[in-house]
Amino acid sequence: MNVSQILQTMDYGTAPEASDQATAWLAAHKKKFGHYINGSFTKHENLFPTHNPATLKPLAQISQASSKSVRAAINAACLAQQKWEKLGGHERAKILYALARYLQKNSRLFATLETLDNGKPIRESRDIDIPLAQRHFYYHAGMAQLMVSEMPESQAIGVCGQIIPWNFPLLMLSWKIAPALAMGNTVVLKPAEYTSLTALLFAEACMQVGVPDGVVNIITGDAVVGEMVASDTDIDKIAFTGSTDVGRKIRRLTAGSGKSLTLELGGKSPFIVFDDADLDSAVEGIVDAIWFNQGQVCCAGSRLLVQEGVSERLYNKIKRRMKTLRLGDPMDKSIDLGAIVDSKQLDRISKLVTENSKGDLFQVTENMPETGCFYPPTLITGLSSSDSLMQEEIFGPVLAATTFRTPDEAAKLANDTRYGLAASIWSENVNLCLGLAPKLKAGVIWINGTNMFDASAGFGGMRESGFGREGGWEGLQAYTKPTQNRGRLDPILPKIGSNRAKCGIDRTAKLYIGGKQSRPDSGYSRPIFDANGIFCGDAPMASRKDIRNAVEAAESAAAWSASNGHIRAQILYYIAENLSARANEFASRINNLTGGKTGSQEVNASIDRLFTYAAWADKFDGAVRNVPIRGLALKLNEPVGKIGALCPDDFPLLGIVTIMAAGLAMGNRMILISSEPYPLVATDLYQILDTSDVPKGTVSILTGSHKDLSDTMAKHMGLDAVWSFSSSDVSQIIQDGSATNLKRTWVNYGFQTEWSGTPSEAHRFLEAATEIKTVWIPFGEG
Amino acid sequence: MKKKSLNPSIKIVDDFNLQRNEGVQLDLDWVMSSQANTSAIERRTSTYSTRRSVKKNYQAAWLLRAISCIDLTTLAGDDTVGRVHRLCDKAANPVRKSTLTHLGIPEISVGAVCVYHDMIKTAVTRLEGTGIPVAAVSTGFPAGLSPMRLRVAEIEDSVQAGAHEIDIVISRRNVLTQNWTALYDEIISFRQACGNAHMKAILATGELGSLRNIARASLVCMMGGADFIKTSTGKESVNATLPVSLVMVRAIRDYHDQTGYKVGYKPAGGISKAKDSLTYLSLIKEELGNDWLGPNLFRFGASSLLSDIERQLEHFVIGAYSATHRHPMA
């Protein structure tokens, strides 16, 4: 069109970004790629094509890794690890800094290659993905530098297997590689098979800046390769970002192996709009929430919850805005929505929308490109929480909407999901926003904003959105372990005997559930003998129904999790006070049962421990993260919720007290299975709880077989975490079972646990007892 | 009133039968429910220039469109007849003929010439036959603190002197004290005094304290019958910005939704680069649509913008960077 015609139409025309550098790079590799192992590219093998989803044309061919290649990569990482760790924080910081610089200096090449391979708009690659990737390397260069001074009791985990998704290929690579390298780990990374090219370009960056051979290894291929990495015994840690289904599979695959695991999975994040919100800004928030990256974002605000009185107004505003979204060639600088990553994903989105017959569908289908994987922006209003589109993750540009009446109802609807990744709250009322944020089950909350990310702020989910955080100090937990080594924990068996005679009046130990003593549902008990074989009493054998009852009691004790640290501290001090009053009795009970002489010491340590966690109850503070916005990013330590724990067999009082005190201090409700051989210490303890104002249901104490109860606990959907310090071999059972709802697990893998009360031990308990929520609060009026 | 064809060469988006905003009853519920979240608005405005890009032919056309929307302005104490003549001549011939010929555009003129009251007659006379309207700033511009009677009389005198458009300033104190009724009444009085001349209400956004106040003041001015709402006098320390513009155009959109009246928008002060003018046009296109992309509903209040646009246009034509002295000064 000539100038005078355009003057009439005032169209944008096209503004294509040049891709010549990216295509030249592909050509230089003859469009065929092997893996990056031990510092160099391997010869290609089992080639398969990777496409540009906007044109459906193949870009290059990449290799499907054979088991031999996987082995070679892991070997290289193993060989390089110690040397890399010993290089020291400063040297590692220099390398990470160089990587950040490299990404910055070659930002256009990375951005264009990313868009060609993934289909996302060039604006997003250029302005969001690549700058954030750089930021992660800069930030973690700093973490490498500070590791020695700030994390003296931490060391690298070892070799990390990292499996990343196709929606933010280079960004997810940087989220994984930067912290791993900073802490002295080496990595074997598998990019998604649709989008491996920027990872291979990153391999070149590693070569250019002098990352030592074997520190970063990149192998390509499909899920089979990922599975090989996840199940390899030389891998110390798996970090996975992707779908909840695959995450569940990896949880099972790694159960009991001792591999550290972090999962960043799917979501169906609520976008909540109140009637006093700046509705026009909320609409732009929705654009960034669900039409960013074509909605292929794990934390996409895909569930719109709008206050009934403004729903029609908001829907109309959204529809009008949808008409100005530009969909098309992702290399065009004026495009808002690019291509869906692959035709399989496109089919999935289409199918989910087509199969839905509920609500009112609004789509803007004008100007759809004729070829390529494109899906129009879609709004479906008038849905209910029972509709599958309000429950299922679509992973596409589809917004499902429903209404609510009150803030309380908004919270309930928001939490009415298996996921818990992110949430957006829109209201001009600061009381409403800050009051609602703690009530939402989500790892990240944005107030009057959405999809804000930074290397300094933790990102990660609750519930079936996974566990572990990426970013910030909290993100380093996933890549470090305590420096101390622990010995094997031998099974501790109950004492045996036969004489039931000398017991005076029969004392009946019961289970302690919901603040009441109750008989076991099974109707079975087990005689307990002391070290001399003398009968001491019967301990109830709890069964699955008792677990169920205890979890239900915990469910109705939710108020504890909303209570404040001061109150929790008072109750812990009170327990200590009452335990102290009966110290001698507990000491002799312990000595009697275990045949040891340290009973008194253990009681004193338990009282000390109660004081420790009472002290922490109002001091395990959150933090304000230094994010590059005008506003706050709060790191809040919230209770995990309902925690089931198999208490250690070897410290029948100190173990249960430590677990209980740490859990209660952080606001959790605890279901405690006592030491299996010495249960009568725990059944004495509930009498103390009864007299210490512990709200009913907050703590339940069960006795019985660890092995029998572990599976029920692990699979219980109502529990948020299961811990085990048992000397029975239950770690595998627990981690396998936990895959049901992806609850957090903390198990000993048959190793001893430190119970002496070191500061680092206390921190581990406090960290395990809390779930980190990052609340972004941009602010300003002017 | 049927508006005269102002720019004979650019007619397409100008709806010359545009119905004037007659104003509506002051609706305080509506005014007070209007919200503006500053940080969200800043996030949105920071992406106009990165979300949209116009290149080559398109850029040239958009820049020409920008020229047609300029209120070429001189508001200085040392304005003289000679100075105003030069400005008017530039207004009628804003771009070198050779450049226009290359672009295939027969002729183009700016949106209006904007002067103080004393220069109206000078400008009207000089612009005779060009179709370019003369706008006058009024009502005790820029502070608006002269006696109300004189402010109204100033409008009447300016209309009498031949001004087609009157840029009035509002009493900022009515916004700062949330006295919406007083603001509404003031606008009504000014609008009556304007008669057939179009009224642009200058909010002096840099002095209103918050975007929320700007959103509410915009609505009240439109309810009072403003034909345009305008950001600034150019004399405040902060003039037109993208966040302020977004708030004001959202208010215009809201007002149009509720009443059917199309009100124009004029950012003024601080827009001096061709690239900025493109960003503004794209903001208008995105938020209000093409209807608002012509001088009947959109103006730039600017004095140095034109010169930068001319250089960019010459760059487009000759493929080499231009220099200011190659273009006739205003």
Report on this structure.
The complex is a heterodimer of chains A (782) and B (330). Chain A has 782 residues and is α/β, with parallel strands linked by helices. In chain A, 41% of the residues lie in helices and 18% in strands. Chain A contains 27 helices and 32 strands. In chain A, the strands form eight sheets. Chain A has a ten-stranded mixed sheet with strand order 14-15-16-13-12-17-18-32-26-25, sandwiched between helices. In chain A, strand 8, helix 8 (197-209) and strand 9 form a beta-alpha-beta unit. The longest helix of chain A has 29 residues, at 122-150. Chain A starts with a helix and ends with a strand. With 330 residues, chain B is α/β, with parallel strands linked by helices. Chain A binds chain B through residues 1-15, 123, 127, 276-282, 284-285, 288, 324, 333-334, 336, 428, 448-449, 629-631, 778-782, and chain B through 10, 12-13, 33, 35-44, 47, 50-58, 60-62, 64-65, 103-105, 209-212, 250, 281-282, 285-286, 290, 293.
The helix-and-strand class of chain B reads alpha/beta
| Share of residues in strands of chain A | 15-25%
Low-pLDDT ranges of chain A: none
Q: Order of strands across the widest beta sheet of chain B?
A: 7-6-5-4-3-2-1-8
State the separation between the terminal residues of chain A, measured CA to CA.
42 Å
- Tertiary shape of chain B: globular
Oligomer: heterodimer
